[in-house]
Amino acid sequence: MEPVTDETAQPATDTGTFGKVLAVLDLVLSADTPLRFKDVLQLAGQPRGTLHRQLTHLVSEGLLVVGADGSYTPGLRLLRLAHRSWSQNSFRTVAAPHLLRLHAATGETVHLGVLSGSDIVYVDKVEGQQTVRMGSQVGKTSPVYCTGIGKAAIALLPEAELERLLSTIRFVRHTPATLADAAALRAEIATVRQSGIAFDREEHEEGIRCVAAPIRAGGKEPVAAISVTGPAYRISVDQLDRWSEVVSGCAADIARDWRLCLGPGR
Amino acid sequence: MEPVTDETAQPATDTGTFGKVLAVLDLVLSADTPLRFKDVLQLAGQPRGTLHRQLTHLVSEGLLVVGADGSYTPGLRLLRLAHRSWSQNSFRTVAAPHLLRLHAATGETVHLGVLSGSDIVYVDKVEGQQTVRMGSQVGKTSPVYCTGIGKAAIALLPEAELERLLSTIRFVRHTPATLADAAALRAEIATVRQSGIAFDREEHEEGIRCVAAPIRAGGKEPVAAISVTGPAYRISVDQLDRWSEVVSGCAADIARDWRLCLGPGR
DNA sequence: AAACATGTTCCAATAAATGGAATAGTGTTT
DNA sequence: AAACACTATTCCATTTATTGGAACATGTTT
To answer: What predicted TM-score, i.e. pTM, was given to this entire model?
Structure first.
């Protein structure tokens, strides 16, 4: 007989001492200003001795660096780890050529995003030649409810999972067009499921529009989507409509290649 | 009284159980093919029970994902962590505009690299418009002895540290031009120190040349360098020479801004 | 120089990791 | 289809690292 555990108690997953140290790392990285020991102490709610050792370990592993003023900043180890994580990601590898094609077809910025928890993580990006800022977005997370990729991706989820996710979202109004609550998002998702296309009509950032399409990857493995994004002054709403075919076609191509990659038997 | 500890015993740093789990993560990420449990078991040299729990922790923390076939692949958590690490890196932030300028001046790929242990980690990159492959290189590591950035960076080290680093290098011949041993590298470093410029004359990859300059950041904090890289068919050795002024000028600019960033009092 | 804030070290109590072995699960061969 | 080999997972007494309160440094302000 199943012990009736609380379904929402996901953070209760015990990852031992490792998880605790990782939480400290997360905390330091999340801060938007370098923290000193006392700051971390306050935020972490951990005894001095314990925290001190944890930070020491993080530093000697190269995940954090402690500056001359005692402030903790991210170390290079993370970049190294992430590079391998990124370059080996087979889903990204499969999608990459298609992203390039989509970029060539539209001339605008193309994103590949994957659902992780309640957020979208940008896994890859192809940018226009004017903006020469490297992999800036890769690894960045955005909320699902106000991005094209987000809405496209969660439209793939089975009803139960979608509802569970909806209940965890804290809706923040970023622009006048931002969807305000779960009901609005639920309605939008219904449309996305029908049309196979999601839009972002300046819902996340004023002056930014995008078209997105879910990637039906068969197995539930990666819940993902792609998008074409551009400035509102250049991209009309009509233009988005005209691109929707290309975008969903591209998403279909990625899905096809991905299934091939998993092996023909599966 | 200083306890006479073995200077070379760096890996002996005890990072407790955290370090052990991290080592497992490193191992899985380093493999060039997805590993299953038995593979990791073999490589990690750790008892079954222990390893199993470690992998379980890594998975529930999202650092690894276990596929349907039981193979372990990198999770998205790493990307998220690394993004914050990268976007907040103040040294990179300071350097970025200068990298863009250098790219504009030369039209070729520009790199920013930082010394980490015995390797160079690429921290940022500005690429030519033709190659639209996103942040591919960021986080990648290269050996110091066969890259312009590597040679430029270690030229900044004090003699003792340089020698210590030299002794750890395993020289692998990548091309006919690769420096073959510590003596050759030592000689080259002497030149770099005098001229303030390092070259890579197809020493790492055939058909690839580069000019690099060390960033004299004052405090020993980041041992770093920048470079301009291009294909040999387009970039003559003379061209590299002609760029050396611009490159070292750019490195000086970054160093200046970095010192300003640390605060005028320091 | 005293009071204070911050960072580091110490060590008995405690909780977690360890690792050998038994068990369960998977797919392959006869 | 049964036996087999291989792999993954669970179990639990032992060992070890973590815990956390408090004492000790260190540097800064009043």
So the answer is: 0.89
